[in-house]
Design brief:
single chain; mainly alpha; Tyrosyl-Transfer RNA Synthetase; 2 domains; 3-stranded parallel sheet; two-stranded parallel sheet; 13 helices; binds adenosine-5'-diphosphate; binds tryptophan
């Protein structure tokens, strides 16, 4: 018996990194045993900012390969492209009429991505969380595994679900989807600045570990990762001025599948130079096999395209049925 239905998405916008892996994909792999899962390549979200059409297409294949290489089973789950199930865009329009401008004005991701010149941002970037709510509620997903940065969007999704149920006197139509956010490592930070999240868009490649980095590059990036001159201390979490040190401890713990306190007990009083060697080793063990598998899978594009086709068919059956019901409730 499955414990519920999962929907999550990743934007096909470039090389996936350790943040995507620990914040999202690794969790997908763990959850697939107990949930019915739909994993979506969010290309409609990716066009809310300036993009290169050819690169976007290529990134769909790369991201699909990364899902499989990380251990997502395409037989048991649906992996599909968001734009290929047109019900997402249709439901997003309906939800545009349910969500309130005031709610969207509070979204911190919009503020960060739009930067200082909000007037010049696309309308799509502003209503991005509405499309995300459509992605989730179209499948009546019960759980949504995401990194901590998406938590606010999940709350907005719940607000939309609740208002829809109220507005149309259909109290139990949408269940409130629950976020599943990884404990301990919900936000992997940049290796160059422990106060910024690890991100595809950071100009410095040294700030992140990409899933396709080879072992030499991983070792180099960890050696160069910013730390401070203090040794590791068991009380690191009470010290507010050591974000880079905490980040490396959290990454190590997540990869070893252990609580950060256990790592701190093991390494209390030791130097970061020594710790970095151990960290590089676990990273190479975990990430390099995935990178190699990505390269291998990309030699058979047809195979990956077939997986996306099958995924679309499975997703479409659920989406069409639910959209029909939603339209009838709304009176269209
Ligand atoms: P991004 O441009 O932020 O990498 P994605 O759509 O690729 O956006 O993100 C996919 C998933 O990876 C989301 O669930 C997101 O929360 C997660 N994620 C992205 N960056 C990080 C990070 N630095 N730490 C933890 N999770 C992250
Ligand atoms: N906005 C998410 C991100 O950038 C990706 C995404 C799109 C998503 N639709 C979703 C995540 C639905 C979870 C559920 O990370």
């Amino acid at each position: 018996m499955k414990q519920g239905r999962i929907l999550s998405g990743v934007q096909p916008t470039g090389n996936l990194h350790l943040g995507n892996y620990l914040g999202a994909i690794n969790n997908f792999v763990l959850l697939q045993k107990n949930y019915e899962c739909l994993f979506m390549l969010a290309n409609l979200h990716a066009i809310t900012v300036k993009h290169d059409p050819k690169v976007l297409q290529a990134n769909i294949i790369d991201t699909t390969a990364a899902f499989l290489a990380s251990g997502i089973d395409p037989q048991k789950n649906s992996i599909f492209i968001q734009s290929e199930v047109s019900a997402h865009a249709e439901l997003a329009w309906i939800f545009n009429c349910v969500a309130r401008i005031g709610w969207l004005n509070r979204m911190t991701q919009f503020k960060e991505k739009a930067g200082s010149n909000k007037e010049k941002a696309s309308v799509g970037l502003f209503t991005y969380p509405v499309l995300m709510a459509a992605d989730i509620l179209l499948y009546k997903a019960t759980h949504v595994p995401v990194g901590d940065d998406q938590k606010q969007h999940l709350e907005l999704c719940r607000d939309i679900a609740m208002k829809f149920n109220n507005d149309f006197n259909n109290e139990n139509f949408f269940q409130m989807p629950e976020p599943i956010i990884p404990e301990g490592i919900s936000r992997v930070m940049s290796l160059r600045n422990g106060t910024q999240k690890m991100s595809k868009s950071d100009e410095s490649d040294l700030s992140r570990i990409n899933l396709t980095d080879d072992s030499d590059l991983i070792i180099k990036k960890i050696q160069k990762a910013k730390t401070d001159s203090e040794p590791i201390s068991i009380n690191i979490n009470e010290e507010n001025n050591r974000p880079e040190a905490k980040n490396l401890i959290n990454i190590f713990s997540a990869l070893k599948n252990q609580k950060p306190i256990k790592t701190l007990e093991e390494w209390d009083g030791k130097q970061f130079s020594e710790f970095k060697k151990a960290l590089a080793e676990v990273l190479v063990d975990k990430i390099c096999p995935i990178g190699k598998q990505i390269v291998k899978l990309k030699t058979d594009i047809k195979f990956l395209e077939n997986i996306l086709q099958d995924g679309r068919k499975k997703a479409e059956i659920i989406a069409e049925k639910n959209l029909k019901e939603i339209k009838s409730i709304v009176g269209i």
